[in-house]
Amino acid sequence: MKKLLRRIKILLQRILKRFASNSQQPSPLINSNSRPRPLETSIPSVSRRWESGLVLVCSQCTNEQSGSTASEDLENWLKSRLKFEGLWGDFRVVSTSCLGVCPRIGVTVVLVSNGSYGNSPCLIVNPRSDRELLYSYIKQNKG
Question: Which is nearest to 138 in space by CA: 81, 73, 96?
Fold first, then answer.
């Protein structure tokens, strides 16, 4: 019985030793300096289709109006207006999911321009009465 316990103990020690040596091997994505290595494939980039900026319209700011949401109405109006005035290539209007502002009344709009450097204005817009004001604000940011 003592021999059997000794053999089990030796076997367990070998198993633990192997397990410990395997867990200390470096990950294939990390080099010896503990910095991540670049992945074998790169992420492709494309040229953007706007010159001056993006207008992000929160699609979750929903004020139900005649079967469509206020954010959809505002987004469609802005797209039409930009196309009509020939500014569609300069700006793009994009619908986003929740931006985390969640106003009680109005739609959250973020203007991301090339010169904003992370300081993009976040606006609460009344989708009916503030349309023209928002549009003039967008045009001012044309760079």
Answer: 81
Count of CA atoms in the C-beta half-sphere (13 A) of 71: 26
State the angle between helix axes of 131-140 and 70-84 in degrees (0 to 180), rounded to the nearest 10. 50
Helices (H), the chain: 2-23, 70-84, 131-140
Encode pLDDT of 31-73 as tens digits. Answer: 445 555 555 578 888 777 777 888 999 988 765 444 457 888 8
Tokens encoding 132: 């023209």
Q: Give the SS3 label for residue 134.
A: helix
Sheet strands side by side (includes 91-96): 91-96, 53-58, 107-113, 122-125
**Which residue, among 113, 132, 115, 53, has the nearest Cα to 87 in the 3D structure?**
53
CA distance readout (Å), 88 to 72, 114, 136: 17, 15, 14
Taking only the tens place, the pLDDT of each residue in 77-108 is 999 999 999 888 888 999 998 888 888 888 99
DSSP secondary structure letter of residue 122? E
Cβ atoms within 10 Å of 39's Cβ, excluding its own: 8
- Does pTM top 0.70 for this prediction? no
